[in-house]
Amino acid sequence: MARLVFQNMPVARSIVSWTSIIAGLAMHGYGEEAIQLFHEMEETGVRPDGITFISLLYACSHSGLVEEGYGFFSKMKNVYGIEPAIEHYGCMVDLYGRAARLHKAYEFICEMPVSPNAIIWRTLLGACSIHGNIELAELVKARLAEMDPDNSGDHVLLSNVYAVAGKWKDVASIRRIMTEHSMKKAPGWSMIEIDKVIYCFVAGEKPNEVTKEAHEKLREIMLRLRVEAGYAPQLRIVLHDIEEEEKEDSVSKHSEKLAAAFGIAKLPKGRILRIVKNLRVCGDCHTVMKLISKIYGVEIVVRDRSRFHSFKDGFCSCRDYW
Prior knowledge:
- Helices cover 58% and strands 9% of the residues.
- By secondary structure, the protein is of the alpha+beta class.
- The protein has two domains: 1-181, Serine Threonine Protein Phosphatase 5, Tetratricopeptide repeat, CATH 1.25.40; 189-316, no CATH class.
- The protein has a six-stranded mixed beta sheet, covered by helices on one side.
- A hairpin with a 2-residue loop joins strand 5 and strand 6.
- Belongs to the PPR family. PCMP-H subfamily.
- This is DYW domain-containing protein.
């Protein structure tokens, strides 16, 4: 619909119109199309501004277009005379971090002509958590401790790095520090709207009629995925030192899985499941959503904390890069 509105505008498209469609494509992972539209915008004589370049760099970041992203970052200053703001530097750190070029991201931060803020360092810490770089994560966390010592999210990210590496003593040490300083981890939740009513699911919450129905349907779904698609849970993503059976139980009850199960139980066939999540979708849930879309013939759109994932026929619009 956004494309149709954009294509059929009766008046000349302004910089706001061009930037809006580029940003929309970026959030859905259509990096190449966003770049193509940017070039079309240039050809029409519309001059991009700083916000346009943020959207463009975001598009490159979420599509793994590293070299293209660096090219646009250089073009912004050298061709259009736009001085990069802290947000543009943040986009570049995110671009390198998502592509697992962590040391390049660190070097980029160290060479910035402006002082990096906590968000810049936190972006790199998040990338270290995703790609499991303990050494760099500890270095970045030390920088953040000087700038924002009471941020619980930073402790959680470092704890996650240790957990993936199986360093449970370090995980316990961080959790002890968080307890001593009354820091609490933000719980993961997912929401779905059905008949104009919004239902929220939190993993581990007390059972009620809605959650009981969701759990019941989810058990049926998971069994069908195992039988028909050979699904096996990704236990390595469980960030607690518990037995394998407990890990399997834990990963099977993530909030977005419950929201999807409830949607399948309640919405008529053919309706799109639209789920909003407050955290980054995990690898196991991403796999499950792809399998559900294929086995149940349903389209699922999940909006996590940084982008949209559109699941259809066993594939995701992010092409497994998020």
